[in-house]
Amino acid sequence: MGVASLFKVVEGGSVTAPKGFKAGGLHCGLKKTTRNDLAAILCEVPAVAAAVYTTNVFQAAPIKVTQDSLAASRTLRAVVVNSGNANACTGKQGEADAYAMREETAKVLGVSPSDVAVASTGVIGELMKMDRVSSGISGLPAVMSTDEDGAEQFCQAILTTDLVKKEVCVSLVIDDREVKIAGAAKGSGMIHPNMATMLGFVTTDAAIHPDALQSLIKDATDVTFNMITVDGDTSTNDMLLAMASGLSGNKELTEKHPDWDGFAAAFRHVCQVLAQAIARDGEGATRLVEVEVSGAVSDLSARAIAKTIVGSSLVKSAVFGADANWGRIIAAIGRAGEPVNPETVDIHLGEIAVLTGSKPVTFDEDEALAYLKGDTVRIVVDLKNGEGTATAWGCDLTYDYVRINAAYRT
Length: 410
What we know:
Elements: E1 7-9, E2 21-26, E3 38-53, H1 61-73, E4 75-85, H2 91-109, E5 116-123, H3 130-143, H4 148-157, E6 166-174, E7 177-186, E8 199-204, H5 210-223, E9 239-244, H6 260-280, E10 288-296, H7 299-311, H8 313-320, H9 326-334, E11 346-349, E12 352-356, E13 359-360, H10 365-372, E14 376-382, E15 388-395, H11 399-406
Parallel strand pairs: 4-5, 8-9, 10-14
Antiparallel strand pairs: 1-6, 2-3, 3-4, 3-9, 6-7, 7-8, 10-15, 11-12, 11-14, 12-13
Helix pairs in contact: 1-2, 2-3, 5-6, 7-9
């Protein structure tokens, strides 16, 4: 039995499904619309926590605050999140505002400030409207709950240009106890993560050692969130945060636990579903693009090539136009900076072979056109140069992407 078969998807589950967590969201006035723009997750006990962050040099103030909180004890009780304002490139005032959000959230939720993480997303370079944020934070306790509505309001509050919420939940048995892992994320534009996604939150009721959770979140990110791209831009605010309440009652998980592989597979599945949802919901996107690379000299090389293909503006434009222009794919492979034998490359669009041994193959253009008009386009590349494999996800590049980003601040 494969490890993937050891967990099952919990329909309708989100961040409040694991034991010990409640969530909620509300509108405090950071957005011009009446959509929710402030939210929080609260754990009833100190939760083992781990995170990965953007490697953009201009890290937003909330990231510094979250790093400070995690450095104190490697546990958290809560995370407060706002959308509509990134609080990035806002200097000392922005940092003070992020710390104020931490302090005020801790006060209303009855926890220590060092037990609170802070996350923000939205427009860069604008100071927070702290009167509105403070008023919203004071109202959070009244809207937080352990039911699906609390999770729904949280998911809605973290969205910016996203068209749909992104959530997933799975369950598995560890030490004869049911364990749940759930996640919620936001992201649609400025998506080209390096060490994290836009904003992602994973909750679990598993008992897990903090070193094991930190290692797992990094490894899972490398093959999921770090393998998506929408527009080649890495945000100043990217963060993926995991919290584990330990309330399922299992024995503490480490890499030596007999059920570790199953838990790790379930955790990666949660991350992959959220990452794919971000790619599918790319700004203006009409199709999810999945690139599978095999035969590379290493997995790292395969990842670089797969992400170069899926991030190519020309490849993305060809997918939008349903044009089976494999020349754009081979060109992206060749500029990825990885070892490739130019005489051995095979390329398929789904099941349709377009290149074999680096030589063109006659194919049915109408069949290819029909395939490329589908909701999901798979580009399959076999380099025949090694054992490395990887999969990356992205989306097509449409007129709407330019329209959305041409007027992002207005």
